[in-house]
Amino acid sequence: MLLTAFAQIRFALAVATGRSLPGWALDRLIADALATVREFGGVGPDGPEAVAGPALDESTRRAVQLRRFRAQATRAARETAFYPPVFAGLGLDPAKVEWSDVLRLPLTPKESLRDDPDAFVRRGAAVALRTTTTGTTGRPTRVCFSARELRTMTALSGLGQLLHGQLAPEDVAVMATSSRATLGNLSLAGACAQLGALLQPVGLVEPALTLELLAEDLRLPGKKPKPSVLSTYPSYLGLLVEEGLRRGYRPGDFALERVSVGGEVVTAGLRRRASALFGETVAFDTGYAMTETFPFAGMPCDQGHLHFEPSHGLIEVLDPDTGVPAAPGAVGTLVVTPFPPFRKTTLLLRYDTQDLVRAVAGPPTCRLSSLPASSDLLGKRRLAVRHAASWTTPRDVLEALEAVPAVPLPARFGFRDAGDGVAVEVVVREDGPAIKAAIALGLEGHGVPLRGLRLVRDKSELRDPFPLRCDLREPIFAAASPSSASVGLSAGGG
Ligand SMILES: [Zn+2]
Q1: Measured in angstroms, how far is the CA atom of residue 372 from the centroid of ligand 1?
Q2: Distant-in-sequence, close-in-space partners of 463: CB < 8 Å, separation ≥ 6
């Protein structure tokens, strides 16, 4: 029974990866998966594989990807305003591109999409959402999606989370993200609605209020007695950890099972310190997704890679200076081409995400080794520093800082070019030579060529503060003050 159900799902998804599924088929898919999970109390080891699609051997994968690239390029060259001159200029027939031609196609810069987003929308597309990126690290970008794309996205997101054991009908999910992050929020809200899980959107409010909500006892039919899933940004999770421990909260006050964190670099120090507040058994779901290339996303593995489903899109890791594929182990910019049928409205070919990763050093030996991979996210290129020898990325600095207890979460810091290395500034709880030495040691241990270190006691003293998503804070009505314990968010937001 289990195998049969998953065989059906896999079959249906094989169809889905070739062309769009109608709404009824998506509903049927979810209903089948829910029934299976209900009957067997979980999913077998091939559950996640059913969502990701069958493993392809190298030559089949390349053939599938080239076919999909051609299909997307043909649409882009005929039906958008941006791409026709690109192909005409190169004298390329998009329907006949070979791999060598793909490499000749110029990258699509972020600025082009930001300056004229509608030039990337197909003529005749049934646009339903013109979403805006949150724009923490630059001017926001607009990206259009059709209702059908959104429908497919939420259905597959729900299915994926169910089969990965990340979300079930009895879960209570607290969503603490910017209300402007519409695409991610819609996706989680849609997944919850699809599975029958309870969604509690909170936004980025005072951490004390979110903590109150996470600790609250619930009496709702068919649901867990306390919130079980938290979806947020790493920097906001850091605020919760700091504020929670300061207020005397302990793991016994919560019943969180999973924390889904993304949109920024997630450090080992943050996970460890979050476990002190929410408990050692809390699982962390990390990954990589961005509005512009949604729903094409990276899945983390146990060896620290990000893996990408090849039938959903193409990833390339390119040397930021030369634009040729980065050498194994070298830092590169992640370039993404999302494929149909998931992307049929805003078309992007070789989109330069400006997110830095490393090209994998050798063939992966992890359980997702059949899927193309990069290293985990290192941070935005614009926020990294290039020096003679190599790069210092936000991850290098953040991993070192958030591992040190004297640095409050989230790490408030800045770093800049200092000749053959970088100068770092960071907010600490208390200053002193021992703390300074511990931080310097940590930075050097993470390969940061340290040429200066400045400790400050308040974030206002930072000269060049690193942007954090938790600072997209949303004000609430004054009546809902954290000091009045009985006032919940529902009262404040009503
Ligand atoms: Zn891996």
Answers
A1: 9
A2: 414, 425
